[in-house]
Design a protein that fits this description.
- With 153 residues, this protein is mainly α.
- The protein has 6 helices and 2 strands.
- Strands 1-2 form a two-stranded antiparallel sheet.
C-alpha cells in the first residue's frame, strides 16, 4: 500500500463505521414511534434482543413504547456513534491529528499507550456501576446508565 492509500482506506473505514453506527442508533430511536405488535418493527426490535436484555425496568420508554435497547446499551450506541463521528472528522493520519498529538507532547507509540489508558479509564464507571449493582442492593438510574454507557461506547 502506498503512503497516500493508507489514509484513504482508514477514512473509508471510519465512514463505514459512522454509517453503520448511525443506522443502528437511528433504528434504536425510531422503533418506539412505529410499534406494531406483530410486524416488521416488532421483528427488528426482537433482533435487538440478541445484544441486549431489554429489561423493561431498565429501558427508556417513548410515548409508552419501549426502546429496543436498555438505557446502558442505548448509551453505548450513542458513545459508539460519537466516537465514529470523531473518527470521520479526525482522520488518524494527517496534519491535524499530528498537531493534536504535538499539543499533548505525544507522538507515535507513546500516544497509543495514552489513548489505551484513556479508553480504559472511560470503561471504569460503567463496570463499577454494574458491579456495585451485582453485589449490593444499589439500583442505578437510567440517566446514570446512559451516561456510563456513553463513556464506555
Amino acid at each position: 500500500m502506498s503512503m497516500h492509500t493508507k489514509p484513504r482506506v482508514i477514512k473509508i473505514y471510519y465512514q463505514f463505521c459512522f454509517l453503520v453506527s448511525g443506522i443502528f442508533l437511528l433504528l434504536t430511536i425510531l422503533i418506539p414511534f412505529f410499534v406494531d405488535k406483530a410486524g416488521f418493527v416488532s421483528t427488528i426490535s426482537d433482533l435487538f434482543g440478541i445484544i441486549c436484555h431489554q429489561n423493561p425496568e431498565r429501558t427508556i420508554f417513548v410515548f409508552e413504547n419501549p426502546m429496543p435497547l436498555c438505557a446502558r446499551c442505548f448509551g453505548m450506541a450513542v458513545g459508539t456513534f460519537l466516537a465514529c463521528c470523531i473518527g470521520v472528522l479526525l482522520t488518524p493520519i494527517g496534519p491535524f491529528s499530528e498537531r493534536c498529538m504535538a499539543y499533548f507532547h505525544l507522538s507515535g507509540e507513546k500516544s497509543m499507550k495514552y489513548l489505551a489508558l484513556i479508553l480504559l479509564i472511560l470503561m471504569i464507571p460503567m463496570m463499577g456501576d454494574g458491579f456495585i449493582q451485582l453485589i449490593s442492593d444499589y439500583e442505578s438510574t437510567n440517566l446514570l446508565r446512559i451516561m456510563t454507557g456513553t463513556m464506555f461506547g
